[in-house]
């Protein structure tokens, strides 16, 4: 395993050279993306610092049971995440990966991120498989209803879920008055939401709408899985898998690292935390690039995509 002797965030020249030599000749490449890719865009990850929303473990809110028990709370969490992700901007790593997808035909990205930042960086849609869905898809929670809406960027999704603002201080100016309160902080009171004011299904008129993300205990989207299977079975070999900003602990997503290895892939991990290695560990010919994905990924991909200069945001059109 190549190790980084340089300070985190910079790529040791020898590792950069060997990685780029391999990347340049690779024709079948996978990337597995996680929340760490969007960390420097200002969005919190799930495990470790930032994994708490108020007093709730973010992972505990991402279940059908939590939604069944308290749909108002779960919608407040997801409406907040939709809002925050809309305020955030894709970073150079999102753009570099999107560009790699345009330049290398045989490059497929598997993303666990639901934040919409890769689509907004114009990552080609057919080269981007959203394993865990998207915050901007909504569907009916009623078992018998198939209502599904793609790319719903309405913020707030219904008026009752608007982020409360601080207008309590009479001395503040209009601008400060309109300051949004940080409802991820448990010290800020959460407004009571009337069940009848939550998003309702426009088709069956019975069910509540729910976020189009994959919750714990749920199947990954069938069409996404079959597209990936098709790509995997196109050839016996895979040259490279980049494992970017993910703790690689959630399955089946994390299992793609071993699948790629079994087809000969060398593994390149890009992560802030040296301990976050794939379950199979690191092999001799792997790379671990320690530091911020937003800096390291564009550096690694430069030999194919060049310098990332333009960063147009396709917000709302993705
Ligand atoms: N650059 C690179 N890596 C980073 C950065 C950064 N700036 N910041 C954090 N990381 C790393 C962390 O060290 C950690 O390994 O990103 C990883 C984030 O891990 P998780 O919070 O577990 O996120 P992820 O792997 O995407 O979680 C997988 O779990 O909760 C579910 O459905 C949710 O898709 C999510 C899945």
UniProtKB/TrEMBL annotation:
Gene3D superfamilies: SIR2/SIRT2 'Small Domain, TPP-binding domain
Record domain Deacetylase sirtuin-type: where: 9-307
SUPFAM superfamilies given in the database record: DHS-like NAD/FAD-binding domain
Keyword rRNA-binding in annotation: no
Entry-linked Pfam families: SIR2
Residues annotated as binding Zn(2+): 140, 145, 201, 204
Keyword entries, A-Z: Metal-binding, NAD, Transferase, Zinc
Molecular function terms from GO: histone deacetylase activity, NAD-dependent; metal ion binding; NAD+ binding; protein-malonyllysine demalonylase activity; protein-succinyllysine desuccinylase activity
InterPro entries for the chain: DHS-like_NAD/FAD-binding_dom, NAD-dep_sirtuin_deacylases, Sirtuin, Sirtuin_cat_small_dom_sf, Sirtuin_class_III, Ssirtuin_cat_dom
Annotated GO CC locations: nucleus
PANTHER family from the UniProt entry: NAD-DEPENDENT PROTEIN DEACYLASE SIRTUIN-5, MITOCHONDRIAL-RELATED
Name the UniProt record assigns to this protein: DHS-like NAD/FAD-binding domain-containing protein
Source organism: Lophiostoma macrostomum CBS 122681
